[in-house]
């Protein structure tokens, strides 16, 4: 009983979000808004095997393989109800996924994609805040909508894709 009572009395307190303070008070006013998580992209060395895992083993709804030459990738989308997984495989020698897989032989998480309501306003404001964008203009992404990528070194090691909602 001595150890238990000491643990109960010396346990550190954990700060909690106060109900009187709104969580959104710390968010600066922007001309654009972040939306929902659209997908998490995973680079895979064998697209058919990965597609089969999610479809045949896990029972998910899985798209056909689609080539996106402008981005240098083949994509497959796995529907998860509240979001999607995007399986990525290199298309061509200059594919960014090819270089990713050279460093990560078994694949791994490549990027996250978050929707925004105004991609042009987001680009302008992010540039002002010294966040590097990996292209001068948005490109059309896998969903037929404009997308941009933010430099991972400016996003705590995560490659972030923003997609026009």
List the helices and strands and how they pair.
Elements: H1 2-10, E1 34-43, H2 47-57, E2 61-62, E3 66-68, E4 73-79, E5 84-90, H3 96-103, E6 108-116, H4 119-128, E7 139-140, E8 146-150, E9 160-164
Parallel strand pairs: 1-5, 6-9
Antiparallel strand pairs: 1-6, 2-4, 3-4, 4-5, 7-8, 8-9
Summarize the structure in words.
It catalyses: (R)-methylmalonyl-CoA = (S)-methylmalonyl-CoA. Pfam families: Glyoxalase_4. InterPro entries: Glyas_Bleomycin-R_OHBP_Dase, MeMalonyl-CoA_epimerase, MMCE/EMCE_epimerase, VOC_core. The protein is an alpha+beta fold and 165 residues long. The chain has one domain (34-164): Roll (2,3-Dihydroxybiphenyl 1,2-Dioxygenase, domain 1). Helices cover 23% and strands 30% of the residues. The chain has helices at 2-10, 47-57, 96-103, 119-128, and strands at 34-43, 61-62, 66-68, 73-79, 84-90, 108-116, 139-140, 146-150, 160-164. Strands 1, 2, 3, 4, 5, 6, 7, 8 and 9 form a nine-stranded mixed β-sheet that branches. 24% of the residues are buried.
Q: N-to-C terminal Cα separation, in Å? A: 57 Å
What is the average per-residue confidence, as pLDDT, rounded to a whole number?
A: 88
- Tally of separate helices: 4
Total domains, how many? 1
Q: How does CATH name the architecture?
A: Roll
What structural class do the secondary elements suggest? alpha+beta
Helix fraction? 10-25%
Fourth CATH level, the homologous superfamily: 2,3-Dihydroxybiphenyl 1,2-Dioxygenase, domain 1
Radius of gyration over C-alpha positions, nearest whole angstrom: 20 Å
Per the CATH scheme, the topology name is 2,3-Dihydroxybiphenyl 1,2-Dioxygenase, domain 1
* Share of β-strand residues: 25-35%
List unreliable stretches of 5+ residues: none
The run of helices and strands is HEHEEEEHEHEEE
The biggest beta sheet is recorded as: 9 strands, mixed
According to CATH, what is the class?
Answer: Alpha Beta
Count the E strands. Answer: 9
Q: Specify the overall morphology.
A: globular
